[in-house]
Design goal:
The protein is mainly β. Helices cover 3% and strands 44% of the residues. Strands 15, 16, 17, 27, 28, 29 and 30 form a 7-stranded mixed sheet that branches.
Length: 885
């Protein structure tokens, strides 16, 4: 960074926080993707408990979660806060009904984004929520929220305009790597249509960004009290103020994850239609990252027909219809175009600025004025995405001598911009520095962050044209937010990969950095340990004082003390040793280590997923994760298992949440083998009862070679007291062996047998010991030790004679009967899953004890296929499969 600035840790182990904002007193509010908001007081101490917790309601998988948060402009008076998040599908569908279970979450399914407000209690310094103050602003029902149709490009930021209106950003919710013009197999469009989450007209993929009657790919402007559009919005419909078009402010955006309102712009009156200038970081596909400035309502930034300044022919050539824009000439003469194409309604800019939108059926007639048309609003600048390996560049809008739109590089003197070319990964909205703590030349300068790990300063002129671009920091890591604390004038940011909240300040004395090390961390009691704080330092080169707390009631003020730890009973135990270093200005920082006695670390092992394995691209794959560990001093019940999965995408990664379980599962999406690089990293961390841990890691890559096999059929049939499995191969590509797996559900498969290939391509196996109840079988087909793929599971219901629970008919059309001879509880619980593990239906029926029970289920909206059911009658649990025709 420039001289005089320093960057230091404020809070470590900051997971999974994604944003922070400050009120006028310097009090910070920071929020987790999982739906909790914590208070960072003016001494930079993080509250141990959340001030708001809606984690039960929030879907926090992949890129989903609570990403937006805002304080009301009059927060110190009214305590009002606003939250923007993706709703967990199970909560969306079942909350408030008997079928709702707060412990159930549903991933990889259609849902909505929601904006909710709460009031924090002013009487206790905003540390708790005022009871019954929750209010849903947008998304009270599944029909009125932001449609979430894929696992990324969802909800974004919240910000208040100068006029008190609330602005919110949302991505296109389309598939990020395919040309998605609707009906993409990997998106959740079919389910969203069936649920009413979106209209049929919205099934146009990423073109939702161009569709006015959709909240996707937009920045909206609403009344924060009602959630309705503001009358001064460009497309406001007084007959339908709650419609999407009444709320739209800006459109044509791909993933406006972060945006800001430029200070000291805009009107204080909402009727003026001027909330201020919006600086939008729009995340590009794989070529260009954009910085857009919305200076007025109704500007169209072009996605998906433009990325940066370039036309996207792979989208324009699809001739996608806007079914909200009927062509009045349809069936009039030779006009076969019932609806205008999206490309008919968006023209490139030109000089002198006269635009004629001609009807493609008759170019002598114009498109009617009641059909909204647009001129592409180009970004103020775009820079190369690192995934495009041509060359680094930064470009700006320009016109050639004929008035046609072109772009001009930062390296061209005609651009009149000081700076050098650069690349990034994810453009984000930053901030205009308002404080007095930085040198004068930074006052009012725009700080722009990118997820690649840098912050650049951009000096704009009065026409919002960049004139100078400088590197401010190249070491911010995976930065996801940037905010200014008005009290101390420092910039705060979150490095999501290193799980740190950090701040950048100028002048004064930066706090010291504590670094505690030891020559050993475990051993038999008594254990003599030599500690070392010599790696601690003061960035300002101030002398340091050291204070060690050994966790057993003893302390030391030496830099390199030694200490003997004793455990009298000889059993494994541990001590948390804390080092505090303090400089001459009284600023202190801490670090800590664990010393474990009579103990050795466990050895963690991922059992069923070999390192450097491969996944296939023909479907979403459910991968079971089975962990094990060897620990000399602890039983398995005393060990804590933690799983974490990462999707590695080109030069960055998508981080999933920690799952605490010995055995779990995760979904692999069929991504890879084309322009962009994908892989998965799976980590298992095992920690014993005395604080020592070990981690095992496995990488999984897309399989881009020839198909491994093709099955003609695979079936299973009950035969007296056995189950007969048969399968036939159309072809086998160097198959090593077939591993037959069996489970009582699709979540607990275990290998029961191996069969090696023959020359007949026909195989069979008799299972002499089937499980009672449902038996699910699948083939795990291996090519070598790292290449394997699964068949679709098949099911046999191996009910014993006198079975107390029956489900019939099977196969069924849409009506299912559940019959129970004798009830053992006051409720009968029923769950229905897809074969990929997604819960699709859940209910319970109140019953009388020790009575006969029969109930009919009507399930008209389920797609045909095989489903896995669970029926619980007291302690009795029946599992099985049912075919819906």
């Amino acid at each position: 960074m420039p001289d005089g600035f320093y960057d230091e840790v404020v809070v470590d182990n900051f997971d999974p926080f994604v944003g922070i904002v400050f009120d006028e007193t310097g009090r910070g509010f920071t929020w987790r993707r999982t739906g909790e908001v914590f208070l960072l007081d003016t001494n930079e101490v993080l509250s141990p408990d959340p001030v708001v917790d809606i984690s039960e309601e929030v879907a926090s998988w992949w890129d989903m979660g609570m990403l937006g948060f805002a304080l009301d402009p009059k927060f110190l008076d009214n305590g009002q806060v606003y939250l923007f998040y993706v709703v967990d599908r199970h909560h969306l569908i079942y909350h408030g009904t008997p079928e709702y279970d707060p412990n159930v979450t549903t991933t990889d399914k259609a849902t909505i984004g929601r904006i909710t407000s709460f009031v924090l209690d002013k009487t206790n310094d905003f540390k708790t929520v005022v009871p019954n103050s929750r209010k849903v602003i947008i998304g009270a029902t599944k029909e009125t929220g932001f449609p979430m149709l894929f696992k990324t490009h969802g909800t974004g930021s919240l910000a208040f305009g100068a006029d008190g209106t609330l602005l919110a950003s949302c991505g296109d919710t389309g598939h990020p790597d395919w040309v998605d013009v609707g009906g993409s197999a990997e998106t959740y469009h079919a389910q969203a249509l069936a649920d009413g989450i979106m209209r049929e007209e919205e099934n146009v993929g990423t073109f939702r960004s161009q569709l006015l009657n959709s909240l996707s790919g937009k920045i909206i402007r609403i009344d924060p009290e009602t959630g309705e559009g503001v009358p001064s919005n460009p497309f406001y419909d007084p007959a339908a103020p709650d419609s999407p078009r009444s709320k739209v402010w800006s459109l044509g955006l791909r993933n406006p994850y972060r945006f800001i309102v430029r200070p000291n712009t805009g009107s204080h009156f909402s009727d003026d239609g001027d909330p201020g200038e919006l600086v939008i970081g729009d995340v590009g596909s794989n070529f260009w990252e954009e910085i857009n400035i919305a200076t007025a309502g109704g500007q169209n930034f072009g996605w998906p027909m433009y990325e940066g300044f370039e036309r996207k022919q792979n989208y324009i050539s699809r001739n996608t219809e806007n079914k909200d824009a009927p062509n009045p000439l349809f069936n009039n003469g030779n006009c076969e175009e019932e609806f205008f194409l999206f490309s008919d309604l968006l023209l490139p800019p030109s000089l002198p600025g006269t635009f004629l939108f001609k009807n493609p059926c008759d170019t002598t007639q114009l498109i009617p004025e009641n059909i909204p048309t647009f001129v592409h609003e180009r970004p103020v600048m775009a820079y190369r995405n690192e995934d495009d390996n041509t060359f680094p560049d930064v470009v700006f809008p320009e016109f050639d001598i004929n008035g046609h739109p072109i772009n001009i590089s930062i390296t061209d003197p005609e651009a009149n911009v000081q700076g050098e070319p650069f690349v990034g990964i994810t453009s984000m909205g930053g901030l205009f520095y308002q404080g007095d703590n930085f040198p004068e030349e930074y006052k009012g300068i725009y700080f722009h962050p990118d997820y690649k790990g840098w912050i650049r300063t951009i000096e704009f002129d009065e026409n919002n044209e960049p004139r100078k671009i400088d590197v401010f920091s190249n070491s911010t890591g995976y930065i996801v937010t940037l905010s200014e604390n008005p009290k101390n004038g420092c910039l705060y940011y979150i490095n999501i990969k290193n799980m740190q909240l950090r701040k950048i300040c100028y002048g004064g004395t930066p706090a010291p950095v504590a670094n505690a090390q030891a020559d050993k961390y475990f051993g038999a009691s008594p254990l003599l340990v030599q500690f070392d704080a010599s790696e601690s330092f003061s960035p300002a080169e101030s002398p340091l004082n050291y204070s060690w707390d050994f966790g057993d009631g003893t302390i030391s003020d030496e830099m390199e003390p030694s200490h003997t730890f004793i455990s009298l009973n000889g059993v494994p135990s541990y001590f948390t040793v804390k080092l505090t270093v303090t400089d001459t200005a009284g600023q202190a920082r801490t670090d800590q280590v664990i010393i474990s006695l009579n103990n050795t670390p466990p050895t963690a092992s991922i059992q069923n997923l070999p390192d450097s394995s491969f996944y296939f691209l023909d479907r979403t794959t459910l991968i079971q994760l089975n962990g094990s560990a060897i620990d000399a001093e602890h039983s398995d019940e005393e060990l804590v298992y933690e799983w974490r999965t990462y999707l590695e995408h080109n030069t960055h990664e998508h981080i999933d949440l920690i799952e605490e379980a010995k055995n779990t599962f995760f979904y692999i999406s069929p991504l890879g083998c084309e322009d962009e690089e994908y892989s998965y990293r799976v980590e298992l961390k095992v920690t014993d009862g005395a604080g020592l841990s070990d981690t095992d890691t496995a990488f999984v890559f897309p399989y881009c070679e020839n198909d491994l096999f093709e099955l003609s059929f695979f079936n299973a049939e009950k035969n007296n007291r056995t189950v007969q499995l048969n399968w036939e191969m159309v072809f086998e590509n160097n198959i090593s062996y077939f591993e037959i797996e069996r489970g009582n559900s699709i979540f607990d498969f275990k290998a029961i047998w191996k069969i090696y290939p023959n020359n007949l391509s026909e195989y069979s196996l008799t299972d002499f010991y089937p499980l009672t109840g449902a038996n699910f079988y699948r083939l795990k087909i291996w090519q070598d030790q790292n290449v394997f793929h699964y068949s679709t599971p098949v099911m046999v219901d191996f009910a014993v004679e006198g079975d107390d629970i029956l489900l019939y008919p099977n196969p069924a059309k849409n009506l299912i009967n559940v019959s129970i001879k004798n009830t053992y509880a006051e409720k009968i619980n029923f769950k229905l899953y897809q074969l990929n593990g997604a819960l699709v239906f859940k209910t319970n029926w109140p019953v009388e004890l020790n009575a006969y029970f029969n109930e009919q289920l009507f399930l008209p909206n389920l797609p045909q296929g095989i489903y896995f059911y669970e029926i619980k009658n007291g302690e009795e649990l029946k599992r099985g499969g049912v075919v819906i025709n």
